Amino acid sequence: MTSPSTPRPTSSSTSSSRERILGRVRAALADAPTAPPAARDYLTSHTADDPTVILDLLHENLADYRALVHRTEERELPSLIADLLTKHGAGSVAVPPGLPASWLSGTAVEQRHDEGAPLTPYDLDATDAVITGCALAIAETGTIVLDGGPGQGRRALTLVPDVHICVVRAADQVVASVPLAMPRLDPARPLTWISGPSATSDIELDRVEGVHGPRTLHVVLVTETSAPGGRGGTAAGS
Amino acid sequence: MSGTYLGMPAFPEAAHEAVRNDTLRANLRHATHTIRDKRAVAVAELDDWTELREAGKQIKEHTLSRLDHYLVQLEESVTAAGGTVHWAADAEEANRIVADLVKATGEGDTEKREVVKVKSMATQEIGLNEALEAEGIAAYETDLAELIVQLGEDRPSHILVPAIHRNRGEIRDIFRSEMEKWGRAAPENLTDSPAELAEAARLHLREKFLRAEVGISGANFMVAETGTMVVVESEGNGRMCLTLPETLISVVGIEKIVPTWRDLEVFLQTLPRSSTAERMNPYTSMWTGTTDADGPKAFHLVLLDNGRTDTLADEVGRQALRCIRCSACLNVCPVYERAGGHAYGSVYPGPIGAILTPQLRGTASEIDASLPYASSLCGACYDVCPVAIDIPEVLVHLREKVAEQGGPGHRLEKAAIKAAGWVLDHPAVLAAGERVAAKTRRLHPKKLPGPGASQWTDSRDLPEMPAEPFRDWWKKNRT
Lengths: 238, 479
Ligand code: SF4
Fold this sequence. Notes:
Distance between the termini of chain A: 40 Å
Largest sheet of chain B: 6 strands, parallel
CATH superfamily of the largest domain in chain B: NagB/RpiA/CoA transferase-like
Strand content of chain B: 5-15%
Oligomer: heterodimer
Bound molecules: iron/sulfur cluster
CATH topology of the largest domain in chain B: Rossmann fold
Strand content of chain A: 15-25%
């Protein structure tokens, strides 16, 4: 175990500790052989390779963790979004850069675009809802993943407002399992995995939806193939 | 480690307190049994659990066997992505680094510095909050449970649900009397319904999140090849702390590394199911250095040793560093269920605490020397561990070490004997242990090494130990 320890730009006060810790690690491992890389005998997916089965499973698992799931065709998306905003009595909605304008064409709710001068945390706190696309969704765990790409926005956007509406394109944004999701995600981007609304079980193990994140999560599964201009996601699958 | 725990009574005295406290025992029992049953269901959903567990074990084993290599690689990746890496040999150095980083942020009024924190065992281990307080920096815990613990001037009792020893009535009382001292007061007429209590916490903490300039976190995983940090959570307070402040400081034990991005696919399947018995926890945040116009402008990673390299040097004991802090072992442990988290005298309670704490801190104190004896060696912890840490094996190994170090009549030996005696004094613990032991017999040491061992286990298999005569024997021989 004598891999070279090139000095890196660490803060100078700790550079001696760096050498000390690495030295102690090497001493501790002096007699230990390198363990082989892990065997990966686990499954890549636990689900039949059938888009209908996978979409139904996503729906079921999202709902099981109290996300409110809707299915619609692309052309009905604007009216569904308008209905959801009305139902929550939302007066304002945060809009990430790159969100298809058509998605909000059915509503007169005030749109707060996070472009130019970005919305401050206080602005976001005073905004009722946020609408985004996603990078992908994982059926087996009921998870949507956001990567900050077009139509998703920076992380604070989907965190501070109390209602999050997330649109998933069924045709190309749904994978069955975690192992199938990893290669489609870019670790260089900030990623947020969301499985149901914010929750806690800290008080006598009673699950309570909603502590700090959005207390309501709507997931809209768009089951029709992309209409022109209907791109909500990013590089996923490309 | 944290000064909070110095002067703790050895295991049996602390456990004695817990056993007398009916509320605590009822809460703990309810909690551990509820989670353990749900966990079994969540795990049974995956046909390949055995293979995932084995892969998790092997990934960690491999990483630890080349830890120097992966640490250097991680440092390069984090630095290349815009982060700054610091190395802390011990708690004091880590606290110093964090305090200096906080002070270096902003101009502001130095009298009023504050940070928001997301639950992190590493920062509890080093006593960061107390160290910051001594420097005039207020550290606000933001997990609901940690908030309850902090407002109640209490100590956490469970890794996953640290306030599990408090019931809803106690929580309401704490919120009513304490919140106003630290910020927004609890709403008038606050009842003890969990939804209302959660709402009170939301309102109380929101103002702190919105104005926070520095966030402090730990991490569940660090990916060496990409420099990616991973935090799994439920409430969203983690996202707040990781996203809203200008500066983010993460204090992470050096053992939290995995080599590759792909390795996460194993732990993201095993950790949520083992800990909260969920297919996936509500929120997982992953970030790599800093990102333009999204989240903190500065990211500091403090790599913490604090006894981990000592643990790594122990051939048998080093497997404790595989732990991913899921807390499954706590929930199946008959000793933990009765003794409570506080009896373990450290931030790491239960079976993992019994093998990790004495290695991180050494066994020079009575509490630490007694920990390896706080077990009936039933093996249930090993069965549920998602990285297959053979906790009974490490316990037996550590007993040998304590025995060598103390010697007959030594105060450490006495502490150890008392802890073992406590276990024997609780027939329910032994009985629960023996029921499980049938399944794990092959793992059991034939003899129980350690102080006094020759006097009472010389020729017996442990599971056959007759509880009754031994209890009498202990009563006569206890100091
Ligand atoms: S020792 Fe195993 S079961 Fe216990 S907390 Fe660690 S990973 Fe979980």
